[in-house]
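ARCHIVE CARD
Drawer: 12
Card no.: 0347
Subject: one protein chain, sequence and derived structure
Cross-reference: see card 0346
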Amino acid sequence: MTHKINFRSTNFLLALYRITIYIIPMYYRELIKGTLATIILKLLSEKDRMYGYQITREVEQITAGEIILKEGSLYPTLHRLEAEGLVSTEIEYIGRRVRKYYSLTAKGTESIKTRLKDFSRFLVNMDKILKLNPSMKWES
């Protein structure tokens, strides 16, 4: 008995999506999860405003595909940052589509400065503990 696989079917694409999520090791995802707000705030500090998909593409491009943000983690983080007053939103209509842009608030600008200082201190301490070699080439 042979089975034909419909590569365009929703079930196949969903299964493929689930598989790709697990290609990234769990500990790596946890590291990203712990720094996601800082990553978002830093990107917004470099641009006037960005929408969600633009943020994911920017991270993917900067990291050469090593870090891929998923909607399930990006949007809850953006909503939390908005609730904390660190980002503001602006809705723009493009044809029939609605695009929500995120921008840093004054509070967000101060927060990213503090977060970057804290993260820098964290990296220095991790280097002391782990004795990392920055020129080390990591294998994929």
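Annotation on reverse: The helical segments are 10-23, 26-46, 52-62, 71-83, 106-130. The radius of gyration is 18 Å.
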